[in-house]
Structure formats: C-alpha cells, structure tokens
Amino acid sequence: MPEANFHPLESYEELPVAEMKARAKAFYEDLRRRRTVRDFSKRSVPREVIEQCLLAAGTAPNGANMQPWHFVVVSDPDLKRQVRFAAEKEEKEFYSGRAPQEWLDALAPLGTDGNKPFLEAAPYLIAIFAERYGVLPDGRQVKNYYVTESVGIATGMLVTALHNAGLVSLTHTPSPMTFLNEILGRPENERPFLLLVVGYPADGARVPEISKKTIDEVATFL
Ligand code: IYR
Questions:
Q1: Quick check: 1 pLDDT over 80?
Q2: Domain count, the chain
Q3: How far is the CA of 146 from the centre of ligand 1 (A)?
Q4: Ligand 1 centre and the CA of 103: distance in Å?
Q5: Ligand 1: nearest atom to the Cα of 114
Q6: Is residue 222 part of a domain?
C-alpha cells in the first residue's frame, strides 16, 4: 500500500478579519452578476483561457483524490453541428411530450424550447464526463468514490472560473446524453455529466427575470 507523505501547509494565507469580510462580500457581489446565457456570440475565445479554467476546476476536492472527471473541449464546427443535431432530437421529444406538464410549467419562466442554436454558435462546448471507474494504463479498473459529488463540485468551480475570466456559460443537460460518448469518442467508463456551453454573450443578449432565495431561505444557523 502506498504510504502517506506530508509536507507543511505553505499555501494557506490567513486574512485579517476586516479583509476577510470585504473579500467575502466582494466575491458575492461579483458572483451575483453571473447569469446563465443562452444567446451566444460567435466570437472566438483564446484556448489558453479555457485551459486555465479547466486547471482551476481540476483543483476541486474529490473522493480519494481520484479526480474522476474528463473534459472534452469541442470547437470543431462539424462536431458542434453533430452535437446540436443529436441534442435537438432529444430536446424536441422532451418539449413535445416526454416531459410531464409540471416540469414544463417550471421551465416556462426560462423561455427554453427544443431549439439549441447556441450549440453551434458558441466557440466552445465543454462536455464534462464522470468516470464511473478509472482505467490504468495496463487496462486494470480502479474504483472511484463519490463520483457525482466530485464532478459536481468541479463543474461548479469551472462555471465560477469562466465567470471570473469574463466569459459566460450555459449548463445544458440534454437528456439522455449518451450520444456524447459516440460523437466525441469517449469510452464506456465515462458517463456524460453535463454539457457546458462557453463564450461571449451575443450583442443584445437577454436573460429571464429571476430572483435568488434569501439567506434565511437557504440557510439555518444553529
Ligand atoms: N434539458 C432541457 C430542459 C431544461 C431542464 C431544466 I431542470 C432547466 O433548468 C432548463 C432546461 C433544456 O436544456 O432545454
């Protein structure tokens, strides 16, 4: 069994309480500007920015440090077209019968439908895969732990990193999305988790009016 190796926690930086408060507030003020956008510009985004945001996502806490995620960054127009075609096929069925009325009613304020032009317009689609188990170079399988929690946290950090870099994103969940394995050539141990659409908002992009819950609604201090 590999041994645990420890070194001093050198990266931690304590902040004076006043600065802690100011930074906590400033971070919230910045994050509350983030909106999910469905109207994307075709403008290109430097690949290096996406790489840095993926590195940031990869720092997420995760089960037994297995890092059970894989990100497929799609900019190829033909692949984007294939993803759009497959997603719209599922989504059109969803909106025209598969979804229960209660779900459609919940989505009504967002104004979504089965058309997904952003899947071709945006410069990047990041398909996030969850590794149900790992595969070693010699083909042996390794167990992963808390896969959904781990990939969920990494995805949240990716959304945050992209916002911090001045980009917008859309967490898109075509269902089912097994077509992503076929189109993007991913192996059987990888389960499609989420499709993140990334880029700049289109000129004049509009977003629905929504509100967020208050601190008392979302938190209980005991
Ligand atoms: N996957 C569909 C429907 C959808 C579902 C939820 I929950 C949303 O918050 C938004 C959309 C779609 O992407 O349109």
A1: no
A2: 1
A3: 24
A4: 9
A5: 14
A6: no
Task: Give the DSSP letter string of the chain.
Answer: -PPP------S-----HHHHHHHHHHHHHHHTT------B------HHHHHHHHHHHTTS--GGG---EEEEEE--HHHHHHHHHHHHHHHHHIIIIIS-HHHHHHHGGGT--S--THHHHSSEEEEEEEESEEE-TTS-EEE--SHHHHHHHHHHHHHHHHHHTT-EEEEE--SS-THHHHHHT--TTEEEEEEEEEEPBPTT----------HHHH----
Tell whether the model's pLDDT for residue 2 goes beyond 90: no
What distance in angstroms lies between residue 112's CA and the mean position of ligand 1's atoms?
7
- pLDDT tens-digit readout, 36-91: 999 999 999 999 999 999 999 999 999 999 999 999 999 999 999 999 999 999 99
What pLDDT does residue 196 have?
A: 98
> What is the model's pLDDT at position 60?
99
Provide the CATH number for the domain around residue 79.
Answer: 3.40.109.10
Ligand 1 interacting residues, C-beta cut-off 6 A: 91, 94, 107, 110, 112, 172-175
Residue numbers of the domain that contains 168: 36-202
What average pLDDT does range 133-162 have in this prediction? 97
